[in-house]
Amino acid sequence: VAVARRPLAAERLDAIARRVALLGLAAKDAAEARRFVDVGARARVELDRFATAEDDDDDEAEAAFVEEADEADENAAWRPWARALHDATPTCGKRYWSSPRADTFPVRGANYLRDRIKVLNRGDAQFALAAVDLLWHRDPAGIEADDGERKGLHVCGHPRNRLALARKAYEGCDAFTMVVTLVVPGPPAYTLAMYYVCKDPAALKDQATPLGRVARPFFFGDDDTYRDARFKLTPRMLDSNWVVRKAVGQRPAVLGKQLKQWYWRGADYLEIDIDIGSSQIAAGVVRLCGGYAKALVVDISFVIEGKRDDELPEQILGTIQIRNLDVTKGRPLPT
Predict the structure, then answer these.
(1) What is d(CA 324, CA 301) in angstroms, rounded to the nearest whole number?
(2) Least crowded by CB within 10 Å, which of 96, 133, 175, 183?
(3) Pick from 267, 75, 79, 264: which is nearest to 170 by CA?
């Protein structure tokens, strides 16, 4: 007697796939995986809300990892400042970080608003990664005011910060630095600070280009709401286990929509503090990643999102590859 076979529902197939994946994990991974699988629909929805509208597109350009050459633009005007910044106060060795080439990351193309097609970034990033700090600090006192309200860390506001020390040793033309920090709640509380040197500061104000139209209000304007709505991060997991890949994903995310970001502007820099602790879901995902940090390799790109035709194509601001990071190798926040 022939028996008709009913196709399995997509939800059922997903549940089976997850159970099969669990069988291949080590004991620690399995325990963490069960915790993640059981997070529930609400948490999954919250994680998905980090994504932007283009996340469902399947026509996203991809390229293999290629590291940015250290010798590139060796005699460029921005190089002396980058060296001064790098040598100021070493805290996180280059064994833990590098800068992937910007033309390996997809961005919104010139006609994205009509065809939804992404293209590989054209040319180099606008900023060169010069240094990385891994800093310990108290939590919550390190990122809260006396009245208990959360505030930004403002690494560049501390007397012996990297920028201040670099300025003492620097002789050269005007320079502009973008500092991006990931403030991770404890215990233990730490911050990963990334220092990017602008290769062409004038390009950030050029209103005749798509980059200048989004960069000028972002770097030199007073509207933090604009910055929250435009600053976009794209992760690319290169080496991680199933748990972390499921938790992090590889979707672009405008973090300011869900996380509190603090902005500190100086005459020659903009610091962007991303407060991971402002979202319980995000904090949980980062803590999960922290437990596997020594086994993780992840690429990240930063971009100012283009939302109008005259703001496209997008241009990568900067990139970083974080590899096998040992969070115990940090140093206290300079005071």
Answers:
(1) 18
(2) 96
(3) 79
Task: Name the 3-class secondary structure at 61.
Answer: coil
Q: What percent of the chain has pLDDT over 70?
A: 64
Let me know: does 36 contact 243? Beta carbons within 8 Å. Answer: yes
Q: What is the CA radius of gyration of the chain?
A: 21
**For residue 332, what are the β-bridge partners?**
136
Token pair 């910060």 is found at: 161
User: What is the per-residue burial (b if ≥16 Cβ within 10 Å, else e) of 160-170?
Assistant: ebbbebbeeeb
* Separation of alpha carbons 317 and 127, rounded Å: 6
| Cβ atoms < 10 Å from Cβ of 41 | 7
Instruction: Respond yes or no on whether the N-terminal peptide bond of residue 188 is cis (omega within 30° of 0).
Output: yes
> Cβ distance 36 to 25 under 8 Å?
no
pLDDT tens column, 73-116: 678 889 999 999 999 887 788 889 999 999 999 999 999 999 99
